[in-house]
């Protein structure tokens, strides 16, 4: 991610955060009125001009420059050294926003000279922080650290907790760029404690944003979202458009990492709009780069290169070395996908050299991995492994989960191609474990809950605002009409109460709808997890390993083919709300054939009524398989003889019915077995899902399970009524 963006905003804002700089609209109007009334050309007028310029920083940079130029000119004519120092410092901030870091440093040097003339320690400390910001943006991290430490010494002498917190934040940012995450988190926590002590809500929001960035880099998306949504809520509340630019971009990056591309694009476009309005080139670069990432996922390489090239051009224009290295890595990836490994390697190598120069370990890890991939393309596996191991070492040190995952996947592929099957299997297991760590069931549920909670809080806030406005209207009306218009007043109150009640009903209906939608998502994720448990995958791989070691070549090839087809079908079907009946039957048949290869004592049949066109019916995926799995795992415990499972699909009236019959020990016996108490989990999930699907399809879905002993037969019979849609041929 382009972590420098919101970090930059944090330190930028903290640099110039003095007591009366950030007035709200009414305070700004008050300052303008004072300026009009104060006609004298004195230091009071200089201070008013600077305060107005500071208040405009969030919304109108052109007005900011106009007032600062007036303040600089007047303070120079008056010989007002402090006023001139303040004007130079804020002009430096303005140039920093415009990404002219060299010019910003020039203004800061002029400001520092004037502060030293009057021995203004507070002003000098702010200048040192400003210098650190510019050195940071120029990737001169050692000079940035020195500047921040000088500022910190001054603030400690002054016992200024806000200033100390600002320095802790900025030092944490430098540690983060150098990949020293433990030291960075420690500094952030110190800054957070100080910000809470002095009641600095803005400081808390900025620390949360930066901590979110670290959690994102390490693949901990739920914690990252908590931090970003807290920051977003604050910045929306105070209409901080500059801060919104960075926070929206950060949320876009988390959604991009979670492969929620449409949602990510929405965040990036909103962030880009704000960045263009305030002329923030850093964020213009980052958002274009990320929009290129989305085109890359859609295999639209031409548009991806277009956005990357534009981003690279602006990055070189403002000499942002970190972003240059990041974009070169991305361009290298595109060339690799276009089967141009030599072009790709040149870009990855340039990015590697820049990262080594700036000391950015995270980008360096990605560059090394890119170079390794180009050698893999040319089948130079020994060279590729050396680069992968270098990248993996950095990722292990910094806990960069996505890079660790890619390293495991590449090593699995290389060892498979070089026929080192044991190592290949080892790295495949590592890869799967890392994949589950990034987006496991718990994380998915946490993320869904976080997004729902944020929307809920937004709606509550809006409802509270509406209620407050209505209450004020009622009170005003009561005062005006108390004596002569009581009847009219009562009518107004009744009307407003009705509006409020109607608004509340609509609000809670929307909440209920959102809750049902989120519940459906969670149930689908649970069902997918129940189909693809690590236990099932591990058992399948163990069976395959046994066949290979037993030199059952043909059987192992057939087993592997069936296993891969089953995984592919399950994953493909899980993306869609409905699938063709033919596709669902393929998954079931592959599942049964897989077990038949492992245990040849199983026999099964799948019969479809001739009145059913399996290419015309679309049904919800993953409904039938859990019951077949239950039959295989639990119906034949202690059973001797041939094990049979018969599956029949037929139309009963307008209902699509699936009947699953086995000749096992029966459901009544199964339920009394203490070792099979967990077999109802997938059945329960399916019942919950059918309840929701019945409403969505406007068609009843049911499950009936009965023991065949009631008809003097052995086994269990499951009757499943499936909601469906017909495809027009």
TrEMBL record:
<feature type="repeat" description="TPR">
    <location>
        <begin position="165"/>
        <end position="198"/>
    </location>
</feature>
<keyword id="KW-0812">Transmembrane</keyword>
<dbReference type="Pfam" id="PF13424">
    <property type="entry name" value="TPR_12"/>
</dbReference>
<dbReference type="InterPro" id="IPR036890">
    <property type="entry name" value="HATPase_C_sf"/>
</dbReference>
<dbReference type="InterPro" id="IPR019734">
    <property type="entry name" value="TPR_rpt"/>
</dbReference>
<feature type="domain" description="Signal transduction histidine kinase internal region">
    <location>
        <begin position="524"/>
        <end position="598"/>
    </location>
</feature>
<feature type="signal peptide">
    <location>
        <begin position="1"/>
        <end position="23"/>
    </location>
</feature>
<dbReference type="Pfam" id="PF06580">
    <property type="entry name" value="His_kinase"/>
</dbReference>
<feature type="domain" description="Histidine kinase/HSP90-like ATPase">
    <location>
        <begin position="623"/>
        <end position="724"/>
    </location>
</feature>
<keyword id="KW-0802">TPR repeat</keyword>
<feature type="repeat" description="TPR">
    <location>
        <begin position="125"/>
        <end position="158"/>
    </location>
</feature>
<dbReference type="InterPro" id="IPR010559">
    <property type="entry name" value="Sig_transdc_His_kin_internal"/>
</dbReference>
<dbReference type="InterPro" id="IPR003594">
    <property type="entry name" value="HATPase_dom"/>
</dbReference>
<protein>
    <submittedName>
        <fullName>Uncharacterized protein</fullName>
    </submittedName>
</protein>
<dbReference type="Pfam" id="PF02518">
    <property type="entry name" value="HATPase_c"/>
</dbReference>
<keyword id="KW-0472">Membrane</keyword>
<feature type="transmembrane region" description="Helical">
    <location>
        <begin position="488"/>
        <end position="509"/>
    </location>
</feature>
<dbReference type="InterPro" id="IPR011990">
    <property type="entry name" value="TPR-like_helical_dom_sf"/>
</dbReference>
<keyword id="KW-0732">Signal</keyword>
<dbReference type="GO" id="GO:0000155">
    <property type="term" value="F:phosphorelay sensor kinase activity"/>
</dbReference>
<keyword id="KW-1133">Transmembrane helix</keyword>
<dbReference type="GO" id="GO:0016020">
    <property type="term" value="C:membrane"/>
</dbReference>
């Amino acid at each position: 991610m382009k972590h420098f963006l919101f970090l930059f905003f944090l330190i930028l804002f903290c640099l110039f955060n003095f007591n009366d700089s950030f007035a709200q609209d009414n305070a700004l109007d008050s300052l303008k009125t004072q300026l009009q009334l104060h006609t004298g050309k004195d230091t009071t007028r200089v201070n008013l001009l600077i305060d107005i310029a500071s208040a405009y920083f969030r919304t109108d940079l052109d007005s900011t420059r106009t007032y600062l130029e007036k303040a600089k000119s007047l303070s120079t004519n008056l010989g007002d050294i402090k006023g001139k120092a303040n004007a130079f410092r804020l002009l430096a901030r303005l140039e920093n926003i415009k990404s002219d870091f060299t010019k910003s440093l020039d203004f800061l040097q002029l400001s520092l000279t004037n502060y030293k003339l009057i021995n203004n320690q507070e002003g000098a400390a702010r200048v040192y922080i400003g210098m650190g910001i510019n050195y940071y943006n120029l990737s001169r991290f050692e000079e940035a650290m020195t500047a921040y430490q000088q500022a910190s010494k001054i603030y400690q002498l002054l016992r200024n907790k806000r200033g100390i917190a600002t320095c802790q934040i900025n030092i944490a940012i430098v540690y983060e760029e150098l990949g020293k995450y433990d030291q960075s988190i420690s500094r952030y926590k110190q800054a957070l404690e100080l910000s809470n002590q002095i009641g600095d809500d803005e400081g808390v929001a900025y620390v949360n944003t930066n901590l979110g960035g670290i959690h994102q880099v390490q693949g901990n998306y739920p914690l990252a979202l908590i931090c970003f949504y807290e920051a977003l809520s604050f910045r929306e509340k105070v209409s901080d458009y500059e801060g919104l630019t960075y926070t929206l971009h950060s949320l876009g990056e988390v959604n991009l990492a979670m492969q929620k591309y449409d949602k990510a694009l929405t965040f990036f476009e909103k962030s880009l709009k704000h960045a263009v309005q305030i002329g923030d080139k850093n964020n213009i670069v980052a958002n274009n780069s990320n929009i290129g990432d989305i085109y890359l996922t859609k295999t639209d390489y031409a548009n991806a290169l277009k956005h990357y090239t534009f981003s690279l051009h602006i990055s070189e224009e403002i000499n942002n070395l970190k972003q240059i290295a990041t974009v070169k890595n991305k361009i290298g990836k595109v060339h690799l996908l276009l089967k141009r490994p030599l072009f790709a390697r040149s870009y990855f190598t340039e990015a590697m050299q820049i990262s080594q120069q700036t000391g950015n370990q995270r980008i360096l890890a990605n560059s090394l991995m890119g170079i390794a991939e180009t050698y893999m393309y040319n089948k130079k596996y020994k060279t590729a492994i050396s680069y992968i191991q270098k990248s993996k070492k950095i990722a292990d040190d910094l806990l960069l989960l996505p890079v660790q995952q890619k390293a495991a996947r590449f090593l699995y592929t290389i060892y498979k191609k070089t026929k080192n099957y044991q190592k290949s299997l080892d790295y495949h297991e590592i890869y799967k474990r890392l994949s589950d760590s990034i987006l496991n069931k718990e994380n998915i549920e946490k993320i869904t809950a976080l997004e729902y909670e944020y929307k809920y809080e937004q709606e509550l806030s809006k409802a509270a605002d509406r209620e407050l406005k209505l209450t004020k209207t009622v009170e005003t009306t009561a005062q005006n009409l108390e004596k002569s218009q009581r009847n009219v007043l009562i009518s107004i109150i009744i009307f407003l109460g009705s509006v409020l009640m109607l608004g509340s009903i609509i609000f809670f209906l929307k909440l209920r709808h959102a809750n049902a939608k989120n519940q459906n998502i969670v149930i689908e994720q649970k069902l997918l997890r129940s189909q693809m448990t690590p236990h099932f995958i591990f058992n399948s791989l163990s069976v395959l390993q046994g066949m290979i070691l037993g030199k059952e070549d043909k059987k192992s090839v057939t087993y592997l083919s069936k296993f891969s087809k089953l995984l592919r079908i399950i994953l493909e079907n899980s993306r869609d709300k409905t699938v063709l009946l033919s596709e669902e039957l393929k998954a079931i048949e592959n599942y049964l054939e897989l077990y038949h290869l492992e245990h040849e004592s199983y026999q099964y049949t799948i019969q479809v009524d001739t009145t059913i066109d399996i290419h015309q019916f679309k049904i919800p995926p993953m409904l039938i398989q859990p019951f077949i799995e239950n039959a295989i795992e639990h119906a034949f415990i202690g059973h001797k003889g041939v094990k049979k499972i018969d599956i029949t699909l037929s139309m009963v009236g307008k209902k699509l019915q699936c009947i699953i019959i086995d000749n096992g020990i029966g459901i009544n016996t199964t339920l009394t077995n203490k070792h099979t108490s967990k077999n109802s989990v997938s059945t329960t999930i399916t019942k919950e899902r059918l309840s929701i699907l019945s409403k969505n399809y406007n068609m009843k879905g049911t499950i009936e399970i009965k023991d065949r002993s009631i008809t003097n037969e052995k086994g269990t019979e499951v009757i499943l009524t499936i909601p469906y849609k017909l495809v027009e041929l």
